[in-house]
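Exercise: predict the fold of this chain.
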Amino acid sequence: MPQTLYDAAKRFADMHADANGVAATPFPGLVVLRETLPSALQYAISRPLVALVLQGCKRVTLGRDTFEFGAGESLLITTDVPTVSQITVASAAKPYYSLVLELDRVLIEALVSEMGNVPFPTGGPVRIDSTEVEVADAALRLLRLLERPASIPVLKDQYLRELHFWLLSGRHGGAIRALGIMDSHAQRIGRAVSVIRSNFSKPLRVEQLAEVAGMSISSFHAHFRNITSLTPIQFQKQLRLIEARRAMLSGGGSINTAAFDVGYESVQQFTREYSRMFGRPPARDINAAKHGQFAAA
């Protein structure tokens, strides 16, 4: 990992990181993360993204699969999937730094059209690989614009496009390419996932989702599970629970309110499913999270 990229990310994150360690940039979908301590377990349904780790280490779990990665490596998530993540190596003397970019499907689609529809391998939705020189160089050029604000409106689109190009051209390219193939299974399931995300608190009609994806119900179920690792109902349930937990942590709302706001009709059912997913009943889990009580996974 080039030292200059680390230096540029460090300067920006040290100056701009908020209380959660997130330094937002003017570039769509791009943030720099900074943490000075190992973190609690973080639950999310991640969007397609790439994370370049510059210092420290992190662990990401998807179902039964666990991925460990550190400086000089990149994490790729190719679809909306539920993950549990934790920064495992970080300190005040050597903070954890990473550059995280949400992948732009529209930009990928345009690039794939120009680059040609070559065959691409299928595989799991999460993967780790070493960060390539071309990707690191493109990321560095993007970060350097932050020190010249007047250049951002003129050059940001060009530099974001270049970064996506090198990602498509490198080791991660085959996995990313499916996001840009018109009418691929990944794109079709992505349309259904967008509907679930926008309406997660409402009753789920699988027939409607299959219609959005342009698939039969049986084909939709098979491809949805293959791509996201979950059934549509499981996906919605995990999204509801993650959103309820986020609301209780950030807003201090009651368990009843959180349960009803995400679509549960029974607080007892909510509590039971929450405990199964997070390992503790809601009250205990939120109290432990707010007081920094977490166990290394």
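Check your answer against the key: The longest helix spans residues 232-251.
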